[in-house]
Every structure is written in structure tokens, then in C-alpha cells.
Write a structure and sequence with these properties.
2 domains, alpha/beta, binds oxa(dethia)-CoA
Length: 333
């Protein structure tokens, strides 16, 4: 690519998604922990979620979603320069999950790496991809958000096990002249709050020992109620900042595709922004659950498949999660 054709920003050229076929509804959790369908629906909005089969890997779902996004873009794996995988549940610690994905889809010309920004991973990935495309270090990037949270949740802990699900979503990004694509972006974090959502054991801070495994420290621990308060504020802040970076106002947004953690959180965010929840927020949390970094691309794929997302729409993607991390992206689709 020469300077004459230097892209002003990155735009979405293709979208794909992949969900495991096993679906668990709330009654399953009623049978294993002290909870009720009513509590889960009222406090979270979740009705069911997908769980991967025992032999299904993060990279399997990622490859499926990635190949669908490539097909949607009319491209082959050889066209991809970089595979970026947003995940906090990779196949292995080393190497990155992107390496298994690159191999499985046959993206022979690509570099690849993972980013872990928990539920904000896809938003962080969009910003990184945009920078690589604008600086002409890559022409086409496959950005995938995938989680297998079923493998890291404590099925004896009712405060977390009812919340999460598995799945994958992917986009192919390429250069644009600025008339569409990423118009504004925002990302921030606060590492002082890293203990609010964490898997304490399994890294180099607390390597696995029989005692730590017996204490279930290798599973997700979340201080839900404290996290909730930050979520509402940070999602609203991120939305305002990304919209303002795009030179727009909340009234210019046609569709909000937020990270799906809790419908009560999203209703509060909509109110703060003055954007109508019922008509402008795309919500698939009831049948997907919280899929962390996969939630926005899964919702993006579903919004497109169901006709809610139409070409030319100005959309806001906004996320918040472990780290704490948060951010938003305004995109003309
Ligand atoms: O993905 C991005 C980051 N994550 C989030 O944004 C999640 C943010 N947090 C939340 O969505 C909510 O805080 C939860 C859904 C996790 C919890 O809802 P809450 O209204 O904040 O409940 P709570 O933690 O204040 O707990 C209220 C009560 C407690 O009982 P007591 O102490 O009042 O007797 C909990 O033990 O609900 C109890 N509880 C449950 N009861 C039935 C907690 N989990 C369950 C459960 N079933 N599954």
C-alpha cells in the first residue's frame, strides 16, 4: 500500500460467529447450587447460555467464527496479515491462542497474538487493529473474541456459575477512507481494582498446588456487587468519550451493542446516556449469558443476522470488565 492510498481508519469487512451446541437453562443451575430461575432472571436477565463440549477448544470456536468472517468478507485465510485474539481463556498459557487459530484456519501469511483485557478485550483489539491498519503495517486483520468460561467457573459457587457462557465472534478489518469504519475510540483501565474479578491461581503469582486447587483458586472469583457500581459508571463514561471522539452526540447513535453482563446495568447506562434502551440497545444476554471478550462480536454477528444492524448505521460498541478495563468504539458500519 502506498501513501497515496493510506487508510484513514479501519472498517469492518466481514463478521462471523460460533456458539457451542450445548445449551444450559437456569433450571440446570437450580439442580446444582442454591439458586432459582427467578433470581437469575431478575438479577441478571440471563435465561440460558452455551457451554462447549468437553473436547471443544477455544481455538476450535475461534477458527469457526474466523472462517465465517472471512467468507463474509469474500476473503481467504491467505489475505490475513495479523490474527488478533481477544481472550482470557486461551487454550494454553504458551503459546498464544492466536497460534492455534492461525494454524487451524491456515492463515499462512499472518502474525498473531492474544490480548487479555477481559470483557473489554474486543474493544482494545479494535483499537490495536485500527492502529496497525492506519500505520500500514497490516492491510487485513482478523480480530476474534472467544471465551470458554465454562472451563474456569466454579460450579459450586452460585455467585458466579450462573453468569457465564461460551462462544466466539470475529470480524475482518481493512482500511477505509474515513467515510465508514471506526470514527472514535476510547479505552482506559484501573489496575488497583484487579482483585474485583480475578482467577488468582494458575499464573506465576500463585502457581497451582493441590491446596490451591482444593480452595478453588483456579476459578473465577468476582465481587459482583462492587463490580456492578463501577460497571454502570464506566460504561456510561466510555460511551460518552467514544461518541465525543467521533465528533458526534448520543442522539447520532443508531444502535448500541454493549458488553452483555447484566440487563439492569445496561438499562441504567441507557438512562444516563439518554439513549432509548428498548429501541437502540441490542440485547442478547438472555440466551447467551456473559461471554466476556466474545460478547460484543457475538452480539454484532447476531444483530447483523437478524437485520438489526444495517449498512450505514452508526453504532456504539462499549465494554467493561476485569482489570478493571473499559472502553468504547463508534463505528459507521
Ligand atoms: O462482565 C463484566 C464484569 N461483570 C459485571 O459487570 C457483573 C456486575 N455484577 C452483577 O451483575 C451483579 O452484582 C450480580 C448479578 C453478580 C449479583 O447481583 P446483585 O444484585 O449485586 O447481588 P448481590 O451480590 O448483592 O447478592 C444479593 C444476594 C446475596 O444474599 P444475601 O447476602 O443478601 O443473603 C447473595 O448471596 O443474592 C445472593 N446470591 C444469590 N441468590 C440466589 C448471589 N448469587 C445468587 C444466586 N442465586 N445465583
Amino acid at each position: 500500500m502506498t501513501n497515496a492510498t493510506q487508510p484513514k481508519n479501519a472498517c469492518i469487512l466481514g463478521i462471523g460467529g460460533a456458539l457451542p451446541s450445548r445449551v444450559l437453562d437456569n433450571s440446570y443451575f437450580e439442580s446444582i447450587v442454591d439458586t432459582t430461575d427467578e433470581w437469575i432472571r431478575e438479577r441478571t436477565g440471563i435465561v440460558q447460555r452455551h457451554f462447549a463440549a468437553d473436547d471443544q477448544l477455544n481455538s476450535d470456536l475461534s477458527a469457526e467464527a474466523g472462517l465465517k468472517a472471512l467468507k463474509d468478507a469474500g476473503m481467504t485465510p491467505d489475505d490475513i496479515d495479523v490474527v488478533i485474539q481477544a481472550t482470557c481463556t486461551p487454550d494454553r498459557s504458551i503459546p498464544s491462542c492466536a497460534m492455534a487459530v492461525q494454524d487451524k484456519i491456515g492463515a499462512r501469511n499472518a502474525a498473531g497474538f492474544d490480548i487479555n483485557a477481559a470483557c473489554s478485550g474486543f474493544i482494545y483489539g479494535l483499537n490495536i487493529a485500527n492502529a496497525l491498519i492506519v500505520s500500514q503495517q497490516a492491510r487485513h486483520i482478523l480480530l476474534i473474541g472467544t471465551e470458554l468460561l465454562s472451563r474456569v467457573i466454579d460450579m459450586t459457587d452460585r455467585t458466579t456459575c450462573v453468569l457465564f457462557g461460551d462462544g466466539s465472534g470475529a470480524v475482518v478489518l481493512g482500511g477505509s477512507d474515513g467515510s465508514r469504519g471506526i470514527l472514535g475510540h476510547y479505552m482506559r483501565s484501573d489496575g488497583a481494582l484487579r482483585d474485583l474479578i480475578t482467577i488468582p491461581c494458575g499464573g506465576t503469582e500463585l502457581p497451582p498446588t493441590p491446596e490451591r486447587l482444593a480452595e478453588h483458586l483456579h476459578y473465577v472469583h468476582m465481587r459482583g456487587n462492587e463490580t456492578y457500581k463501577h460497571a454502570v459508571t464506566r460504561l456510561a463514561d466510555s460511551s460518552r468519550e467514544a461518541i465525543s471522539a467521533a465528533g458526534l452526540a448520543p442522539g447520532d447513535i443508531d444502535l448500541v451493542i454493549p458488553h452483555q453482563a447484566n440487563t439492569r446495568i445496561l438499562q441504567s447506562v441507557a438512562k444516563r446516556l439518554g439513549i432509548d434502551y428498548d429501541t437502540k440497545f441490542f440485547i442478547n444476554l438472555p440466551h447467551i449469558g456473559n461471554t466476556s471478550s466474545a460478547s460484543i462480536p457475538i452480539a454484532l454477528n447476531e444483530a447483523r443476522e437478524t437485520g438489526r444492524l444495517q449498512p450505514g448505521m452508526t453504532i456504539l460498541l462499549v465494554a467493561f470488565g476485569g482489570g478493571l478495563t473499559w472502553g468504547g468504539s463508534v463505528i459507521r458500519y
